[in-house]
Amino acid sequence: MVDQVKRATISISNNISEGFERETDKELIRFLYFSKGSAGEVRNLFNLMEQIGYFKAVELVDYKSQVIDISKQLANYIKYVGKRSGL
Asked: What is the longest distance spanned by two Cα atoms in the chain?
């Protein structure tokens, strides 16, 4: 499960980078959504780790908060890119 969290967190930044390299706003938005999905996967994994007793809830508060912030930032950036390009 820890390895999956690592892969999902790396996927967040990798998809942002790949979206930029595609050089169109439509593709950038597509990959930003992939990144947002990976952030959701990380949140879900944290919840599962808490439920099975791998971590205590208090140990994950900061991490969960950071992932939620990342997801919100991605959502706002998707809206921004969509508006600037008329998508």
From this structure: 46
Distances (CA, A) of 65 to 9, 14, 76, 84: 14, 21, 17, 29
Q: Using the CB atoms, write b or e for 74-84: b if 16+ within 10 Å.
A: beebbeebeee
Whole domain around residue 75: which residue ranges? 2-85
Tens of pLDDT, residue by residue over 48-76, are 999 999 888 898 999 999 999 999 999 99
Q: How far apart (Å, rounded) are the C-alpha atoms in residues 60 and 81?
A: 31
Element (H, E) at 20: helix 2-21
pTM for the model: 0.89
According to the model, what pLDDT value does residue 57 have?
84
Where residue 35 sits, what CATH number does that domain have?
Answer: 1.20.1440.60
By CB neighbour count within 10 A (0-12 exposed, 13-18 middle, 19+ buried), where does 42 fall?
Answer: buried
